[in-house]
Design a protein that fits this description.
Layout lengths: L3 H20 L11 H33 L4 H29 L7 H27 L6 H21 L2 H6 L2 H8 L2 H7 L8
Helix pairs in contact: 1-2, 1-5, 2-3, 2-7, 2-8, 3-4, 4-5
Length: 196
Protein backbone atom coordinates (compact mmCIF):
# COMPACT_ATOMS: atom_id res chain seq x y z
CA UNK A 1 0.00 0.00 0.00
CA UNK A 2 2.78 2.42 0.92
CA UNK A 3 4.24 2.06 -2.57
CA UNK A 4 1.84 4.39 -4.35
CA UNK A 5 2.13 7.27 -1.94
CA UNK A 6 5.40 8.96 -3.00
CA UNK A 7 4.32 8.86 -6.62
CA UNK A 8 0.90 10.17 -5.80
CA UNK A 9 2.52 13.02 -3.87
CA UNK A 10 4.42 13.90 -7.02
CA UNK A 11 1.13 13.82 -8.87
CA UNK A 12 -0.44 16.17 -6.35
CA UNK A 13 2.48 18.58 -6.58
CA UNK A 14 2.25 18.62 -10.36
CA UNK A 15 -1.48 19.14 -10.17
CA UNK A 16 -1.41 22.12 -7.90
CA UNK A 17 0.66 23.84 -10.58
CA UNK A 18 -2.19 23.36 -13.03
CA UNK A 19 -4.75 24.97 -10.80
CA UNK A 20 -2.86 28.23 -10.79
CA UNK A 21 -3.69 28.56 -14.41
CA UNK A 22 -7.33 29.30 -13.99
CA UNK A 23 -6.74 31.53 -11.03
CA UNK A 24 -4.50 33.54 -13.32
CA UNK A 25 -7.79 34.59 -14.85
CA UNK A 26 -8.08 37.26 -12.21
CA UNK A 27 -6.08 40.43 -12.46
CA UNK A 28 -4.21 42.05 -9.60
CA UNK A 29 -4.54 45.79 -10.12
CA UNK A 30 -7.55 47.95 -10.72
CA UNK A 31 -8.29 51.05 -12.71
CA UNK A 32 -11.19 52.76 -14.42
CA UNK A 33 -12.24 51.08 -17.63
CA UNK A 34 -14.90 51.38 -20.26
CA UNK A 35 -18.34 50.05 -19.37
CA UNK A 36 -18.04 47.70 -22.31
CA UNK A 37 -14.86 46.14 -20.97
CA UNK A 38 -16.24 45.99 -17.44
CA UNK A 39 -19.33 44.12 -18.54
CA UNK A 40 -17.12 41.72 -20.56
CA UNK A 41 -14.95 41.14 -17.49
CA UNK A 42 -18.00 40.60 -15.29
CA UNK A 43 -19.43 38.01 -17.67
CA UNK A 44 -16.15 36.09 -17.85
CA UNK A 45 -15.42 36.34 -14.13
CA UNK A 46 -18.91 35.18 -13.16
CA UNK A 47 -18.52 32.16 -15.43
CA UNK A 48 -14.99 31.39 -14.27
CA UNK A 49 -15.74 31.44 -10.54
CA UNK A 50 -17.73 28.17 -10.29
CA UNK A 51 -15.24 26.45 -12.60
CA UNK A 52 -12.29 27.66 -10.51
CA UNK A 53 -14.04 26.13 -7.49
CA UNK A 54 -14.50 22.87 -9.40
CA UNK A 55 -10.81 22.76 -10.30
CA UNK A 56 -9.88 23.54 -6.71
CA UNK A 57 -12.12 20.73 -5.43
CA UNK A 58 -10.55 18.30 -7.92
CA UNK A 59 -7.11 19.33 -6.71
CA UNK A 60 -8.16 18.92 -3.10
CA UNK A 61 -9.49 15.42 -3.81
CA UNK A 62 -6.16 14.34 -5.28
CA UNK A 63 -4.22 16.01 -2.45
CA UNK A 64 -6.38 14.17 0.09
CA UNK A 65 -5.82 10.87 -1.67
CA UNK A 66 -2.07 11.41 -1.31
CA UNK A 67 -2.24 11.94 2.43
CA UNK A 68 -4.28 8.81 3.06
CA UNK A 69 -2.88 5.32 2.66
CA UNK A 70 -5.11 4.77 -0.31
CA UNK A 71 -5.30 1.64 -2.41
CA UNK A 72 -4.46 1.88 -6.13
CA UNK A 73 -8.19 1.44 -6.85
CA UNK A 74 -9.08 4.44 -4.68
CA UNK A 75 -6.32 6.54 -6.19
CA UNK A 76 -7.43 5.58 -9.69
CA UNK A 77 -11.08 6.39 -9.03
CA UNK A 78 -10.32 9.76 -7.40
CA UNK A 79 -7.76 10.84 -9.97
CA UNK A 80 -9.91 9.83 -12.95
CA UNK A 81 -12.87 11.80 -11.55
CA UNK A 82 -10.65 14.81 -10.78
CA UNK A 83 -9.19 14.88 -14.29
CA UNK A 84 -12.67 14.60 -15.76
CA UNK A 85 -13.87 17.52 -13.63
CA UNK A 86 -10.87 19.61 -14.64
CA UNK A 87 -11.39 18.82 -18.30
CA UNK A 88 -15.05 19.89 -18.01
CA UNK A 89 -14.13 23.04 -16.11
CA UNK A 90 -11.57 24.26 -18.65
CA UNK A 91 -13.99 23.51 -21.46
CA UNK A 92 -16.66 25.56 -19.69
CA UNK A 93 -14.27 28.47 -19.22
CA UNK A 94 -13.38 28.30 -22.92
CA UNK A 95 -17.09 28.39 -23.75
CA UNK A 96 -17.59 31.37 -21.43
CA UNK A 97 -14.77 33.33 -23.06
CA UNK A 98 -16.20 32.46 -26.49
CA UNK A 99 -19.66 33.60 -25.43
CA UNK A 100 -18.36 36.85 -23.96
CA UNK A 101 -16.80 37.72 -27.32
CA UNK A 102 -13.65 39.74 -27.83
CA UNK A 103 -12.71 42.18 -25.05
CA UNK A 104 -12.80 45.86 -25.99
CA UNK A 105 -9.01 46.28 -26.30
CA UNK A 106 -6.37 46.28 -29.05
CA UNK A 107 -6.11 42.84 -30.66
CA UNK A 108 -8.95 41.73 -28.38
CA UNK A 109 -10.23 39.23 -30.91
CA UNK A 110 -6.86 37.55 -31.41
CA UNK A 111 -6.25 37.42 -27.67
CA UNK A 112 -9.70 35.95 -27.08
CA UNK A 113 -9.33 33.31 -29.83
CA UNK A 114 -5.90 32.25 -28.58
CA UNK A 115 -7.12 31.97 -25.00
CA UNK A 116 -10.12 29.85 -26.03
CA UNK A 117 -7.89 27.61 -28.14
CA UNK A 118 -5.58 27.16 -25.16
CA UNK A 119 -8.41 26.47 -22.72
CA UNK A 120 -9.85 23.83 -25.06
CA UNK A 121 -6.45 22.26 -25.51
CA UNK A 122 -5.96 22.10 -21.71
CA UNK A 123 -9.41 20.53 -21.42
CA UNK A 124 -8.43 17.90 -24.01
CA UNK A 125 -5.16 17.20 -22.15
CA UNK A 126 -7.02 16.54 -18.90
CA UNK A 127 -9.48 14.31 -20.76
CA UNK A 128 -6.59 12.26 -22.09
CA UNK A 129 -5.04 12.04 -18.61
CA UNK A 130 -8.40 10.82 -17.34
CA UNK A 131 -8.30 7.99 -19.90
CA UNK A 132 -4.69 7.22 -19.01
CA UNK A 133 -5.40 6.91 -15.30
CA UNK A 134 -8.58 4.89 -15.92
CA UNK A 135 -6.57 2.41 -18.00
CA UNK A 136 -3.87 1.81 -15.37
CA UNK A 137 -3.48 -1.70 -13.99
CA UNK A 138 -4.37 -1.46 -10.30
CA UNK A 139 -3.59 -5.15 -9.71
CA UNK A 140 0.11 -4.60 -10.32
CA UNK A 141 1.47 -2.10 -7.81
CA UNK A 142 4.73 -1.50 -9.69
CA UNK A 143 3.05 -0.92 -13.03
CA UNK A 144 0.49 1.33 -11.38
CA UNK A 145 3.20 3.46 -9.76
CA UNK A 146 5.04 3.73 -13.08
CA UNK A 147 1.84 4.77 -14.81
CA UNK A 148 1.24 7.48 -12.22
CA UNK A 149 4.79 8.71 -12.74
CA UNK A 150 4.11 9.20 -16.43
CA UNK A 151 0.91 11.05 -15.64
CA UNK A 152 2.73 13.32 -13.17
CA UNK A 153 5.26 14.14 -15.90
CA UNK A 154 2.44 15.05 -18.30
CA UNK A 155 0.85 17.22 -15.62
CA UNK A 156 4.11 19.02 -15.03
CA UNK A 157 4.28 19.88 -18.71
CA UNK A 158 0.67 20.96 -18.70
CA UNK A 159 1.05 23.28 -15.75
CA UNK A 160 4.15 24.98 -17.15
CA UNK A 161 3.14 25.29 -20.78
CA UNK A 162 -0.51 26.11 -20.43
CA UNK A 163 -0.99 29.72 -19.52
CA UNK A 164 0.66 31.92 -22.13
CA UNK A 165 -2.44 32.86 -24.12
CA UNK A 166 -4.39 33.39 -20.92
CA UNK A 167 -1.69 35.74 -19.65
CA UNK A 168 -1.82 37.63 -22.92
CA UNK A 169 -5.60 37.88 -22.68
CA UNK A 170 -5.28 39.39 -19.22
CA UNK A 171 -2.64 41.97 -19.97
CA UNK A 172 -3.29 45.66 -19.47
CA UNK A 173 -6.87 46.91 -19.33
CA UNK A 174 -8.47 43.46 -19.46
CA UNK A 175 -6.65 42.43 -16.29
CA UNK A 176 -7.56 45.69 -14.61
CA UNK A 177 -11.23 45.28 -15.50
CA UNK A 178 -11.21 41.70 -14.24
CA UNK A 179 -9.56 42.74 -11.01
CA UNK A 180 -12.56 44.93 -10.21
CA UNK A 181 -15.06 42.09 -10.47
CA UNK A 182 -16.13 40.53 -7.18
CA UNK A 183 -16.32 37.07 -8.73
CA UNK A 184 -12.75 37.28 -9.99
CA UNK A 185 -11.53 38.57 -6.63
CA UNK A 186 -13.04 35.57 -4.91
CA UNK A 187 -11.62 33.18 -7.52
CA UNK A 188 -8.14 34.58 -7.01
CA UNK A 189 -8.48 34.51 -3.26
CA UNK A 190 -8.32 30.73 -3.49
CA UNK A 191 -4.99 29.31 -2.37
CA UNK A 192 -2.61 29.02 -5.28
CA UNK A 193 1.10 28.97 -5.93
CA UNK A 194 1.16 32.52 -7.26
CA UNK A 195 -0.19 35.74 -5.84
CA UNK A 196 -1.23 38.80 -7.79
Amino acid sequence: MEGTNPVNKKLAAALSGGAVLVLALSGCSSDDNSDKLNSWAKEVCDAVQPQAKKIEAANAAIQKETSDNSTPEEVQKTDAQAFQDMSDAYKAIGAAVTKAGAPDVDNGETKQKNAVKELNSISASYASLQKQVADLDTKDQGKFADGLKDIATELDKLSTSGSDALKTLEEGDVGKAMAQQESCKSASAAPSATTG
